[in-house]
Amino acid sequence: MNSPQVPPSLRELLADVFEISPEEVTPELSSATLETWDSFRHLQAVLALEGEYGVQLDPQRVPELTTVALLQAELEKKGVSL
């Protein structure tokens, strides 16, 4: 199964929040595999995504969005065109 590509805008935003290079932002990247992805940066990422794409993520779901693929899927569910 091929992983979906991370769109450049999402890749850049997450790279900035997590202080990594954009090339490191893959669908598989997760809070379990990235040392800088702690609870504070998770909240920063969610707030940055909401601001950038003009959506509000469900606060109940936010703690479950622990990979780039899950964040991307959640944005797409909200109707964001990436």
Short description:
The protein contains 3 helices and no strands. By secondary structure, the chain is mainly α.
Show the helix and strand layout.
Blueprint: H1 8-18, H2 39-53, H3 68-77
Helix pairs in contact: 1-2
SSE-based structural type: mainly alpha
In the CATH hierarchy, what is the architecture at level 2? Orthogonal Bundle
Question: Total number of β-strand segments?
Answer: 0
Q: According to CATH, what is the topology?
A: Non-ribosomal Peptide Synthetase Peptidyl Carrier Protein, Chain A
What is the CATH first-level class name?
Answer: Mainly Alpha
Question: Which regions contain 5 or more consecutive residues with pLDDT less than 50?
Answer: none
Helices and strands, in order, run as: HHH
Our count of helices gives 3
Strand content: under 5%
Main β-sheet: number of strands, strand sense, barrel status? none
**Mean pLDDT across residues:** 93
Oligomer: single chain
Instruction: For the record, give the distance between the C-alpha atoms at the N and C termini, rounded to a whole number.
Output: 21 Å
Determine the fraction of residues in helical runs and give it as a percent range.
40-55%
- According to CATH, the homologous superfamily is ACP-like
Which of globular, elongated, flat, extended, rod-shaped describes the shape?
A: globular
> How big is the Rg?
11 Å
How many domain modules? 1
